[in-house]
Amino acid sequence: MLVNSKLGTVNFMEGKDKLKQTDKLKLARIIAWGAAIFSLIVSVMLIANYLQLKMVDPLESPALKLLVEQLHENPNDDVLKENIRALDLLIRKAYFTSQWQIRTGAYLLIFGVLVFVLAVRYQKSLRSGLEELESIEKDPFLDKQLARKWLVFSSAGFFVLALLAGFSSSNILDQYEPETVEEKLADNQVEVIEVQPVATPEPVAAEPEVEESPDENLATETEEEHAEEAEPVAVKEEKAADPTSAEVQPAIPSKEEFRKNYPFFRGPDGDGISYKMNVPEKWDMASGDQVLWKVKVPKHGYNSPIVWGDQLFVSGADQEAREVYCYHATSGDLLWTAQANQIQGSPAKMPKVTEDTGLAAPTMATNGQAVFALFGTGDLLATDMNGKRVWAKNLGVPDNHYGHSSSLIIFKDKLIVQYDTNRGSKVMALSTVDGSTQWETTRKVNISWASPVLADVEGKPQLILTADPLVAGYDPETGKELWTVDCMMGEVGPSVGYTNGVVYAANEYAILAAIKIGATAEVIWEESEYLPEVASPLAVDGFLLIATSYGVVACYNATDGTKYWEQEYADGIYASPVYAEGKVYVMDMGGNLHVIRLGKEFELVAESALGEKAVCAPVFANGRMYLRGFDQLYCIGK
Amino acid sequence: MNRLSKIFFTLSAIILSIPAWAQQRFPKPEFETGYVQPATSQTSPRLLFLEYLDVFVLMAALAVATWFVVKKRSRRGVMWTSVFSLLYFGFYREGCICSIGAIQNITLAIFDPAYVLPLTALLFFLLPLVVSLFYGRTFCAGVCPLGAIQDLVAFRPIELPKWLQKVLGMIPYLYLGLAILYAATRSEFLICRYDPFVGFFRFDADFQMLLLGGLFLLVGIFVARPYCRFFCPYGVLLGWMSTFSKKHMQITPSNCIQCKLCANSCPFGAIEKPVEEEGNRRTNVQRLMTYLFFIPLWIGIGGLAGSALHVPLAKFNKTVYLAEQLVVHPEFKQDPDHLDARAFMQSGKSMDTLVEEAKAIRSQFYWGGWLLGGFMGLVVGLTLVKLASHRNRKDYEPDKTNCLSCGRCMDYCPVKN
């Protein structure tokens, strides 16, 4: 009985253990299946989420783009602004939530797979028997024989395929044939410039082409009448050889004379500072209040106007022609048009440029005796103040993927050209009289779109240029490089600002650097919160203003970089801010001019709208303000 | 800190700061709440002592794995060591630095005098090889995170026929040759770019790479460690070392009782059966001599094929690729959206120079192709010779070249003392 009882107990215990074992196995299997299904569901959701995230780009939302376009049309619609902000926030939230979901999902998947692996492993460990492989029949001798056969066939096949692939692949590099310059010209291809000295221009071979009005003082010809002018006379590179015909005077205008006028991009020193008084602040385009005149410029161009006396100059270009226009600054009448054509070395086919740069981006320059215009083709035209060609030459087509945009500036009798291209960079001084090279300095920088600035450094003039990677100072008399600071990067568009011995250079995705120049040049402070893409920094009276392409205007203490204020506008800003009479004039891309009083606190003086897009800086002369929109030229004043 | 370390840290800092640059290009959102944009911060380079800690952990893990395999004969010990390695080298160190990728660092250091080889990369390359030379591939068994993650999912392994194993076994040699070729020509770190598991370790990768890793794991349920056996280029080197190992693990601690359990337990087909020569001895020797005779032919054919492939192979070099693109599409030079073309244009180089550079690189691929192809021919020839040769064997023995020292066979062996 006792034995039976013990045996019964043992059987019961064994049965209990077996039961427990079975339960454990069952539980492990359920967990494994559960984990597998969970992992599978998470995987599918992760893939779906990943694909969704790939498709949704917060910056490319069609709804947001639509609203932004509407805002361009109604820039003062505050409700629309709020809607855009709300939608922008919503899209960004959705984007970052998706990212969070993917990350969380990844952790869940890892957890699921881990549980699955552990459950399966546990399940296997509970099984008493050894698990053997699903084995196959093996015969070492035959297996080796078969393996040799397969190896021979597969290897031979692989090598044959490799040979076929190799012999059938096209050798593209061997098709490349270096083209000579002559071949390129013959093929109507664009000539690209190498850094080399500019050829001395040849004497005038024919009369320059000028379209003049019957009245020499005040032309009244219309645009259509100009179109009927005679065909241009072919000339080679030319300069004024006939002293009787040349109206160019050898006398060098004084600094005061330059400051009386508005001869360059960003004013008489190219630094954004105007010395004009009684400058208009606002207008009303609808009623015409303070709008003295407006005219449509025949050909498109992003260059700002320049003014000398009562003459205003702009240039324009398209695929057909490159032209200089002279307007009467008071009446807005077109006085004459000069064409930059028939210039030796000028490309037969226009170089490719982007729409937002065009072929007439560089602002012209004048010294009151001649007017100089540079185009994206490398054509440089000098005319007298009546539009008569003095000389013209091609500097070599600038290899520039957006289009050349560096503006001209004049120092004494030297026309300064910053020519930073993809094929080399240089700065050169050409004689304003005949275009001959006065000096030329090769620059160890990458392509840039910035313009030269003339600064008065400790009583001596200095030419300051910026590009990637160097901000550099040059002696404008000799072209000698005086100093460099390695602080820029990227595609440098903004020119430098300058005040009180400090150069301010900035570029988007790079840095805003204040460089103290003197015996040496050193960065005294840096800032990176707001960086301009196109508009140049404006440094004046201890203040520094930065205007960004996303619409923020920021004002800093020029001495130490402390930010005084920032103001945001709906439209981005490409036009460089300019200073006049204690105020800063900021034109945004929507064509709205914001006049801000220069100071530690933001104070809006006036705001007016052009009614069309604008990227050109305002120009001041004769108590009036001149503005250039995408299509029209405006004169504002009383 | 020595000079090498400083240069290494500088390079690391530059590489680590790339995401920060990318972040800055993202337009700043608009805030009206007075939120101040934080300054862009850059991740600090890994501290030097942590780099040395990695080497120390590698040495420790190698020692422990080897001890479990050779001395303790513990499959369980090996497995838990591999789990630790998976967590440390895989998920904590995110798959980098790794011995497999170190092949490329070594190659680049040999061919590019400007490249400074990090000491850690050198040690990660050498230490497992040295251990393999004495104790077999214990690195594969317990230290490699790629092996560990595959080993954990090998639930229902099946045995592959020998011919398939041999054919697929050629891939690691090809991968090794290509990885060296691309590193030597400064074109690409192929192994790192196509690491199928690094996406899991980092919780971040291209979708295609995650998919590839998932497929490897899925296949790995039935075909144990597919990457280790049929792709891993470092496994080739470890196999060579292991072939000469004197203290390689033994299946049985004493006398084999010919129970076959070990042969049926090995998911890698790395156990040689007892075998006696079959067929006519003279015929077998003649076959062997024939295959030996054909080795130079294989090398020649392979070299020719490799050299013929140099044009398509060189396309993966970014300079050659760009040059070919610009030759075929010169308009790309003016395309502002073509970043490579833009970078080239801004560099100030002429097209002639670019094409010359591309041709010089392609010439390297030509000679590299000869070597790669010749190497593959040699591998094929020697594998055929090995398959044609015969060695009598009385017991079940591990195939030292292909055995991953996982310890399954020891676990299954009924002879414990």
In short:
The complex is a heterodimer of chains A (638) and B (417). In chain A, 26% of the residues lie in helices and 27% in strands.
Q: Assembly type of the shown chains?
A: heterodimer
Q: C-alpha Rg of chain A, in Å?
A: 36 Å
Report mean pLDDT of chain A, rounded to a whole number: 83
Q: Average pLDDT value of chain B? A: 88
Q: Tell me the number of helical segments of chain B per DSSP (H or I, 4 or more residues long).
A: 21
Number of helices of chain A: 8
Low-pLDDT residue intervals, each spanning 5 or more residues of chain A: 182-209, 211-248
What is the molecular shape of chain B? globular
InterPro entries (chain A): PQQ_b-propeller_rpt, PQQ_rpt_dom, Quinoprotein_ADH-like_sf, WD40/YVTN_repeat-like_dom_sf
Keywords (chain A): Membrane, Transmembrane, Transmembrane helix
Transmembrane segments (chain A): 30-51, 100-120, 150-168
Domain Pyrrolo-quinoline quinone repeat (chain A): 289-442, 522-597
